[in-house]
Amino acid sequence: MDKNVKMLIRNLNFYYGSVQALKNVNLEIPANRVTALIGPSGCGKTTFLRCLNRMNDVVEGARVEGNILLDGQDIYAPEVDPVQIRRRVGMVFQKSNPFPKTIFENVAYGLKINGSYSKKEISDRVEKSLKDAALWNEVADRLHDSAMEVSGGQQQRLCIARALAVEPEVILMDEPASALDPIATQKIEELIQELKNKYAIVIVTHNMQQAARVSDYTAFFYLGELIEVDRTEKMFTKPGRKKTEDYVTGRFG
């Protein structure tokens, strides 16, 4: 992996009550790269993703063992504020989830609850985030319209803009294009390629072609275990494990 490691996961075990969902996962998340998580439904991809910004903290009975380091700091250390972690590690969900507010208020939301920004700072940050999410040209004259009135693809990019506004360092994406049509999906994929210049990105996808198109590294999960991780090109052309090969060639999944 790249020497420039943004997040380091060591011996991660995760439990929902007595059920173990992740088993001894070790993985490096490099900066300025896209890491795709693939594997059949229920194999632990989304659970793993949600461990990376402590979203599983809100699940009753959830328990984490092992270490997840962000720039060398254990995000599960007792003194660490999970809200701060979620600011540094942003999340974009499978189904776009804009708030029932205006486009502007959606992007400004995190800034207003997180800090003491002036109106001008908020306005500038909203514009920058919408530009970074490749949405500004489409909504610049509609900032005070409801976010519910734009298309599904635009709503998903709006959610990306909302995540970018608080200036995270890592962006997690849980199947960000699964509900979108091919044209909107292409826009999201192009956007991911742009965003990796500034962020470490981790994306869960069921779409093998999408993983091959957008990611630099691919990690294959199966039944809660990380089976193999390598450069994406190698994972899809010459994987090291038979189970990986069976999955990427469509023999199961």
Could you explain the architecture of this structure?
- This protein is an alpha/beta fold and 253 residues long.
- It has a domain at 5-99 and 168-248: P-loop containing nucleotide triphosphate hydrolases (Rossmann fold, 3-Layer(aba) Sandwich).
- Helix content is 36%, strand content 26%.
- It contains ten helices and ten strands.
- The strands form two sheets. It has a six-stranded mixed beta sheet, sandwiched between helices. A four-stranded antiparallel beta sheet has the order 2-1-4-5, with helices on one face.
- A hairpin with a 2-residue loop joins strand 4 (62-70) and strand 5 (73-74).
- Helix 4 crosses helix 6 and helix 6 (152-165) packs parallel to helix 7.
- The two termini are 27 Å apart.
- The model has no long low-confidence stretch (mean pLDDT 94).
Question: How do the strands line up in the largest sheet?
Answer: 6-7-8-3-9-10
What does the average pLDDT come to?
94
The low-confidence parts are none
- CATH homologous superfamily of the domain at 5-99 and 168-248 - what is it? P-loop containing nucleotide triphosphate hydrolases
Order of helices and strands: EEEHEEHEHHHHEHEHEEHH
The portion of residues forming beta strands comes to 25-35%
CATH topology of the domain at 5-99 and 168-248: Rossmann fold
Q: What overall geometry do the principal axes of the alpha carbons give?
A: globular
| Termini gap | 27 Å
> What CATH architecture label of the domain at 5-99 and 168-248 applies?
3-Layer(aba) Sandwich
Continuous helix count: 10
User: Helix proportion of residues, in percent?
Assistant: 25-40%
